[in-house]
Structures
1.
Amino acid sequence: MPLIYKICPLPLWREAEAAGRLDGAPVDLADGFIHFSTASQLAETAAKHFSGQDNLLLIAVDETALGDALRYEPSRGGALFPHLYGPLPLSAVRSVAPLATGPGGGHVFPDSIKG
């Protein structure tokens, strides 16, 4: 199963659990889609948008469960990033794990993430 990933602040995830769906972070709502990353894009996404932030979760999502609402579109440097046009149904989530911060302030991704 192909997975895509969302880095999510814990309070936003708690709201999603209560609602049964994730509508997105403020940047997602402003852009009109929910931003995701592939495994190979995660480290750069974390460094660019979440540097120095704690209390984050790494949400793994089965991209096939999202259907036509998921589109890969050019973003940073022309790389194709997964964008979800609509809310993320929690039924598509395959795992939720804390995203640790390492000694240098960068985020530490699980060994299971192959980039």
2.
Amino acid sequence: MAKSIELSNVTKAYLEEYQRILDKMIQGMTYVTITCSISENFIKQIIPHQVAAIKMSENVLRYTTNIPVQNLALEIIKTSTETLECLEAIQNRCCIVQNSEYELYEYMCAYKEITQAMFQAMCAPPVSNNININYLREMIVHHQGGVRLAQNVLRFCICQELIPILRCMIDTMCQQICDMEKLLDALQDCENC
């Protein structure tokens, strides 16, 4: 079991805002009125996820002086905003594509399993007073969940306009996860010096 660390006032302020963002994301992704359209359900469920990525990145930008973390946060804000705009643009058209009850059940079972694992990992206590390390750990888990959610929806008959957005989301988040893992390793190495 990890020992608890004494948090600085700056870390506490950062984490309080992170917790507000996380609570709003969990609520937004959990309490969605489910329809017979997996495409529509996914869009409504993933929008709070994308908004959280933007808000989490804006939160770290208030505190960090680390240039690679700043650049990464700005990139995540840009790509998440673009994804959000694409999803909102097709939302009303995608609800036309309907799915069977069985498909809906399969989709929702996987969705619940993925989101519960992501929420649990994102709620884990901080490991450091280093806000950059905390942000990267939180965002890696967030993005891994996003990739799994996008892969899940691609297993079903969905709106054709949604498919290229999902593929772009997966590619972007996978690249960002790779960048974040490298940056996290470097920051943790420095902290252990």
3.
Amino acid sequence: MTKSEFRYAHHPEDVKRYTTQELREHFLIPSIFVKDEINLTYTMYDRYIAGGAFPVSKALKLEPIDDLKAEHFLDRRELGVINVGGKGKITVDGEVYELGNKEALYVGKGVKEVIFEATAEQPYFYINSAPAHHAYPTKKITKKEAEIVELGDTKFSNKRVINKLLVNSVVDTCQLQMGMTELVEGNVWNTMPAHTHTRRMEVYFYFDLEEGQTISHFMGQPDETRHIFMKNHQAVISPEWSIHSGAGTSNYTFIWGMAGENMDYGDMDGVSPEDLK
């Protein structure tokens, strides 16, 4: 079963006046994994879709949601999947791909059937999708094949490892870009110093967070920031005008997914910590 909800885009002047509850209703995606469901959120920010497939007792077929007005989910879209659980398998038009923990799969435009299944272990398939204009081949990416960058400093509590999994230097995509950032133990800040990039939006998905711990995700314009407290296995939508940074009460891992007109990972407008308000 594939379920979905719809989110509109928002003007930054309006967001300044949002209450805590309104921020959470518009930007937080609280339930990514629902037993034996594919659960998706369609946002008008670059028509991005984020969600999860959680096959427990049965296989789950990716069905076209009403908002797509399409016969198949990927008629005009591409798909990225990163498994954040135990080993599972994804069948793409009859071809089976086994995905272990923190491995990724790119599925191109025009694919007719995508099926998610558990094996002897319990997978958690995190899903992102963006509109596509060209059909690129399906490809599995492991951490060994990823482009890996180490950033940060323990002195500033932001030492981290960035795994660029579904980026244009690793696999051909139309506009979808996905990767995974792992914080080194004892470090809590991600993406600090913060930045914006008006040429693309982003969705953050947080996981590997210990039970009872929390993450404060920071968003908003650099001189008008807001925060949303989040739990493990939750995601948050980041508009193109917003910073996207966070700090946890322990270390964690997060997946960033992006779409827009620019695929250059380094194309961003940096913001000094001392200029944040």
